[in-house]
């Protein structure tokens, strides 16, 4: 049997090699038949200023072109031997709340080009879709053309801003022989898929195999290490340090400016308030504020809180106290938020895996360990659909990811409390869990909703009370009371700034809408439910074939009112279908068998799922709808889906439910990784890491 499998694998490898040579390298063979063209017939547009030989700077984008004329031959490709690209950006430093360079440059960028070309079938020139050329991706230096008959002229229009500098190793030309290229990325993809197909039975056996305790521990540690590598990769692949260096968006420096203010001993942001802002009757009216500052030429801090003539930050204070302030006091420099996101992301992944481990230990210890690990990956992906927080590692991600870390710590401690054998350990874990819950208030108050899990997770802390309902209520009251200990400092912080202990400053934001005058939130729910849960991403016929559902807008669908909508990448169930297990519990056939399910397991599942609607309602009513808000409730549905999976396994007793779980998580992993390439998302990979983006795009392109 093994020899037969080996033969099948060898045959698959041979087929992969043939595909690599004759399919993906077809242009190597076809380009050998093209007629060469005299490179002297090249005209440089007036919008390109020559800096040195083959080096140009854009002075007039409208006339920034390179024209290859008098070709009079069949054209099969355009060769663009790009050597370097450098882009410059200047800043209004007086509008940024921390010390900032007046200008910045970036060399790791791609050149955006559009090709205009004629052929025998078209009287007028055709404008072809824009292409990307990167100096380090050799395959991008050739653009394959599919034309009819003789071509006379080819024009390369450079779509870059004024000041962009680029150089060639030689002038662009047509019909240049394309080199033979072996892609290790393609070869790995071939071999991996071939291995899975040939050894699919062995892979299936690994999933359902029972392992000894030592082997199980090794599997958990190995899978945790791989999960950390994936998450760290999503941070590093986006190169957030380059984004932040080129950013002039004021809120990207909100935690740094807060740290500087705290170091000086006060709660407000040290930034001069413009006369235009002070003189407005309603400074929270976005359009009036923009017009006033356009006329005066003054600056104001967008997306900061403004109250009684001073700027404040509405972001949670705890990340600043934990990371940004100590770093500033020790080094005198500002801590970049991507470093905080990277550190917290590692803890978030490990804690999510730990939560799933404890859930199975409590309610379904006999589930195959590989299935448990797969479910843990489901929660890791559900916490931040489409890797939003780690891919866009800016200030906006910091309070959310730290709130998630604290929420997961709380759940871990409560689950440990529920399994403790002595009353002393129960109280110890419960107390520390509640203290962790209180700290969430200093990050993202929405996550405090997990207090609703107390009656279903924590065993009775009061042994002398036999009534389960009264005991659960007392547990809940005790948890709320204990959490107030660590919540108290944040209430005081609110009072110092805004005069109310429950005022976090969100209503004083200088943002796209007046947060004090929100319209009916209930009428937005149908749109929010579709966008938050069920909407798929938009598709396109260009790589990567997926794009954001919506761009920034003040309206959603045909909603007749203000509905601030930022770019979204699709609903939760597209990215994390493991949550669908919770919906499956509604089935009448399943409901009939609930009597054999522990009440606390069923209650935890239902409450976790229903609780997800509260953050969605709060977010869409109080602010806008954007992809990062899925992180406010994604973990709730992820946990609910895993708990529902456990219930279904207890009821159905069929391996097909395990197969469905594997399919759901594999789907989530594949599409979450692919989402990194999506266009329309913030800091999209085409801008943040064009070299990698173009390399992957070209690796799986045959005729282009």
UniProtKB/TrEMBL annotation:
Segments crossing the lipid bilayer: 9-29, 178-198, 218-238, 311-329, 341-360, 386-415, 449-466, 473-496, 569-587, 599-618, 633-652, 659-677
Keywords: Membrane, Transmembrane, Transmembrane helix
Recorded superkingdom: Bacteria
Species: Bifidobacterium aerophilum
Record flagged with keyword Cytoplasm: no
Name this protein carries in UniProt: Uncharacterized protein
Keyword match Phosphoprotein: no
